[in-house]
Amino acid sequence: MAAVSTGFPAGLSPLEERVAEIRRSVEAGAHEIDVVITRAHVFAAHWQALYDEIAAFKQACGAAHMKVILGTGDLLTLRNVARASFVAMMAGADFIKTSTGKEPTNATLPVSLVMVRAIREYAQQTGMAVGFKPAGGIRTAKQSLDWLALMKEELGPSWLRAEMFRFGASGLLGDIERQLDHYATGRYSAEYRHPIA
Q1: 189 close to 178: Cβ distance less than 8 angstroms
Q2: CA distance 72 to 105
Q3: What is the Cα–Cα distance from 21 to 115, expressed in whole angstroms?
């Protein structure tokens, strides 16, 4: 069971409230917690404050896996994305995730490349493997191939497992169902025939 905590999607509620929300999610049985960072820490280059915030989230997660949502569409520069990625991993992120899916710009390949290369460098420096989740805007099976190729080329086959790589794209499932239907029958089915689409 997974839960989205910490004042999703903006992450602007008081820190104590966000930490308490994580604890409530864990007590309710969540095995994975998605947390949202305070983007203002990134804008102001308050890296220690960002680290402390994420470390507090990690402590509240206990044994539950923590996915840190960076909200990359709001971070303005690729340098900010890289730095936020490193801080999140140093503070204990099990996954780093591009977006909430609510920002005007969500998962993009340039941002994903920066994040994946940060993951690679972090793994080389520490020996710790952190997962990656692009979220928002990935709607077709054909688009998903770009991210699969990115992961394989930048991180290798060991990251092409659900424990290390996931898509955050509910719209993608409907297209995958339609592609499978086409493969089996030679025809595309109507979107309304698939409950998730």
Answers
A1: yes
A2: 8
A3: 27
Q: Which of 182, 192, 187 is nearest to 141 (CA)?
A: 182
Amino acid of residue 154? E
- Rounded CA-CA distance 20/195 in Å is 35
Element (DSSP H or E) covering residue 144: helix 141-155
Name every residue whose Cβ is closer than 8 Å to that of residue 79 and which is 6 or more positions away in sequence: none
Return the active site residues. Answer: 34, 97, 133
Burial class for 42, CB neighbours closer than 10 Å (0-12, 13-18, 19+) = buried
- Which of 98-107, 129-138, 174-183 reaches the highest mean pLDDT? 129-138
Phi, psi of 36 (to 5 degrees): -115, 130
Residue 169 pLDDT grade (very low, low, confident, very high; cuts 50, 70, 90): low
pLDDT in the model for residue 179: 83
Structure tokens at 132: 């990656």
Question: What are the structural domains of the chain?
Answer: 2-166 (3.20.20.70), 173-197 (no CATH)
Higher pLDDT, 50 or 104: 50
